[in-house]
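Hey, can you fold this one?
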Amino acid sequence: MRWRLYKPSKKPKGEKNTVKKKTWREKLSDSKDLPKVVWLDEKAQKHWKAGTIAIPSPMEVNEMMAKVPKGKLITIEEIRRTIARRHKADIGCPLTCGIFSWIAANAAAEEAAAGKKRITPYWRTLKKGGEINSKYPGGIADQRRQLESEGHKVIQKGKKYVVENYKKYLLKVI
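Sure. Predicted structure:
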Protein backbone atom coordinates (compact mmCIF):
# COMPACT_ATOMS: atom_id res chain seq x y z
CA MET A 1 0.00 0.00 0.00
CA ARG A 2 1.36 3.44 -0.94
CA TRP A 3 0.75 6.49 1.20
CA ARG A 4 0.59 9.92 -0.35
CA LEU A 5 0.78 13.30 1.18
CA TYR A 6 -1.62 15.73 -0.38
CA LYS A 7 -2.75 19.28 -0.12
CA PRO A 8 -6.45 19.91 0.08
CA SER A 9 -7.58 21.53 -3.16
CA LYS A 10 -9.72 24.09 -1.33
CA LYS A 11 -9.34 25.76 2.02
CA PRO A 12 -12.09 25.07 4.55
CA LYS A 13 -14.99 27.50 4.56
CA GLY A 14 -14.48 30.57 6.67
CA GLU A 15 -10.64 30.41 6.60
CA LYS A 16 -8.84 33.38 5.13
CA ASN A 17 -5.75 33.14 3.00
CA THR A 18 -2.92 34.44 5.19
CA VAL A 19 -0.19 34.22 2.55
CA LYS A 20 0.50 37.66 1.09
CA LYS A 21 1.55 37.67 -2.52
CA LYS A 22 4.93 39.36 -3.10
CA THR A 23 5.11 42.48 -5.22
CA TRP A 24 7.38 42.50 -8.26
CA ARG A 25 9.72 44.85 -6.39
CA GLU A 26 9.91 42.38 -3.50
CA LYS A 27 10.66 39.55 -5.92
CA LEU A 28 13.39 41.66 -7.50
CA SER A 29 15.10 42.33 -4.18
CA ASP A 30 14.98 38.67 -3.06
CA SER A 31 18.47 37.37 -3.88
CA LYS A 32 17.82 33.71 -2.91
CA ASP A 33 21.54 33.27 -2.07
CA LEU A 34 22.49 34.32 -5.59
CA PRO A 35 24.69 34.92 -7.53
CA LYS A 36 26.56 31.65 -7.60
CA VAL A 37 28.54 29.46 -9.96
CA VAL A 38 27.77 25.75 -10.20
CA TRP A 39 29.27 22.80 -12.06
CA LEU A 40 27.02 21.31 -14.71
CA ASP A 41 26.30 17.58 -14.70
CA GLU A 42 27.62 15.46 -17.56
CA LYS A 43 24.45 15.66 -19.67
CA ALA A 44 24.25 19.46 -19.28
CA GLN A 45 27.95 19.82 -20.10
CA LYS A 46 27.37 18.06 -23.42
CA HIS A 47 24.28 20.16 -24.16
CA TRP A 48 25.82 23.54 -23.27
CA LYS A 49 29.41 22.66 -24.20
CA ALA A 50 30.45 24.17 -20.87
CA GLY A 51 31.58 23.08 -17.43
CA THR A 52 30.30 25.89 -15.21
CA ILE A 53 27.23 28.10 -15.21
CA ALA A 54 26.78 31.43 -13.45
CA ILE A 55 23.38 32.01 -11.91
CA PRO A 56 22.83 35.74 -11.33
CA SER A 57 20.71 37.45 -8.72
CA PRO A 58 17.59 39.28 -9.90
CA MET A 59 19.14 42.64 -8.92
CA GLU A 60 22.26 41.91 -10.98
CA VAL A 61 20.15 41.44 -14.12
CA ASN A 62 18.11 44.54 -13.27
CA GLU A 63 21.28 46.64 -12.82
CA MET A 64 22.49 45.65 -16.28
CA MET A 65 19.13 46.46 -17.85
CA ALA A 66 19.05 49.82 -16.03
CA LYS A 67 22.41 50.85 -17.53
CA VAL A 68 21.19 50.74 -21.14
CA PRO A 69 20.98 54.37 -22.30
CA LYS A 70 18.37 55.84 -24.61
CA GLY A 71 19.07 54.85 -28.23
CA LYS A 72 20.95 51.69 -27.24
CA LEU A 73 19.77 48.10 -26.83
CA ILE A 74 20.88 44.90 -25.12
CA THR A 75 19.91 41.27 -25.56
CA ILE A 76 19.48 38.54 -22.99
CA GLU A 77 22.45 36.82 -24.70
CA GLU A 78 24.67 39.81 -23.97
CA ILE A 79 23.49 39.84 -20.35
CA ARG A 80 24.35 36.13 -20.12
CA ARG A 81 27.84 36.71 -21.54
CA THR A 82 28.44 39.53 -19.07
CA ILE A 83 27.22 37.39 -16.15
CA ALA A 84 29.54 34.55 -17.18
CA ARG A 85 32.50 36.92 -17.54
CA ARG A 86 31.87 38.62 -14.18
CA HIS A 87 31.68 35.33 -12.32
CA LYS A 88 34.41 33.56 -14.30
CA ALA A 89 32.03 30.86 -15.51
CA ASP A 90 31.71 29.28 -18.94
CA ILE A 91 28.13 30.46 -19.49
CA GLY A 92 25.42 32.57 -17.87
CA CYS A 93 22.19 30.75 -17.04
CA PRO A 94 19.64 31.28 -19.82
CA LEU A 95 16.65 30.37 -17.66
CA THR A 96 17.32 32.67 -14.71
CA CYS A 97 18.53 35.55 -16.89
CA GLY A 98 15.23 35.39 -18.79
CA ILE A 99 13.09 35.06 -15.69
CA PHE A 100 14.93 37.81 -13.83
CA SER A 101 14.66 40.21 -16.79
CA TRP A 102 10.89 39.57 -16.73
CA ILE A 103 10.79 40.27 -12.98
CA ALA A 104 12.84 43.47 -13.51
CA ALA A 105 10.43 44.58 -16.24
CA ASN A 106 7.37 44.02 -14.06
CA ALA A 107 9.04 45.73 -11.09
CA ALA A 108 9.75 48.75 -13.32
CA ALA A 109 6.11 48.83 -14.46
CA GLU A 110 5.05 48.63 -10.82
CA GLU A 111 7.32 51.59 -10.00
CA ALA A 112 5.94 53.59 -12.94
CA ALA A 113 2.39 52.89 -11.73
CA ALA A 114 3.44 54.21 -8.31
CA GLY A 115 4.55 57.48 -9.94
CA LYS A 116 8.29 56.92 -10.12
CA LYS A 117 9.81 58.68 -13.15
CA ARG A 118 13.20 56.92 -13.44
CA ILE A 119 12.60 53.21 -13.96
CA THR A 120 14.56 50.38 -15.55
CA PRO A 121 14.05 50.78 -19.33
CA TYR A 122 13.07 47.14 -19.85
CA TRP A 123 11.85 47.75 -23.42
CA ARG A 124 15.52 48.14 -24.43
CA THR A 125 16.22 44.51 -23.45
CA LEU A 126 15.53 42.20 -26.38
CA LYS A 127 15.44 38.48 -26.90
CA LYS A 128 17.71 36.62 -29.29
CA GLY A 129 17.70 38.02 -32.81
CA GLY A 130 16.45 41.44 -31.68
CA GLU A 131 12.98 40.14 -30.85
CA ILE A 132 10.71 42.15 -28.56
CA ASN A 133 9.66 40.20 -25.47
CA SER A 134 5.88 39.82 -25.59
CA LYS A 135 5.79 38.85 -21.88
CA TYR A 136 7.05 42.24 -20.73
CA PRO A 137 4.46 44.69 -19.33
CA GLY A 138 2.36 46.37 -22.00
CA GLY A 139 3.16 43.60 -24.47
CA ILE A 140 4.42 44.23 -27.99
CA ALA A 141 2.39 47.41 -28.56
CA ASP A 142 3.79 49.30 -25.57
CA GLN A 143 7.38 48.26 -26.19
CA ARG A 144 7.08 49.09 -29.86
CA ARG A 145 5.84 52.57 -28.97
CA GLN A 146 8.71 53.07 -26.50
CA LEU A 147 11.37 51.82 -28.93
CA GLU A 148 10.04 53.86 -31.85
CA SER A 149 9.95 56.98 -29.67
CA GLU A 150 13.69 56.42 -29.14
CA GLY A 151 14.38 56.21 -32.87
CA HIS A 152 14.28 52.45 -33.48
CA LYS A 153 12.28 50.83 -36.25
CA VAL A 154 10.22 47.78 -35.26
CA ILE A 155 9.24 45.34 -37.99
CA GLN A 156 7.17 42.18 -38.02
CA LYS A 157 8.82 38.92 -39.09
CA GLY A 158 6.18 36.22 -39.14
CA LYS A 159 4.65 36.22 -35.66
CA LYS A 160 7.63 38.01 -34.11
CA TYR A 161 8.38 41.70 -33.81
CA VAL A 162 12.03 42.66 -34.04
CA VAL A 163 14.06 45.85 -33.96
CA GLU A 164 15.44 46.40 -37.44
CA ASN A 165 19.25 46.48 -37.51
CA TYR A 166 19.30 45.94 -33.73
CA LYS A 167 22.98 44.87 -33.80
CA LYS A 168 23.91 48.41 -34.81
CA TYR A 169 22.51 49.70 -31.50
CA LEU A 170 23.77 46.99 -29.13
CA LEU A 171 25.53 48.07 -25.98
CA LYS A 172 28.54 45.76 -25.86
CA VAL A 173 30.19 46.31 -22.51
CA ILE A 174 28.33 46.60 -19.25
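The two ends are 58 Å apart (CA to CA). Let me know if you want another pass with a different chain boundary.
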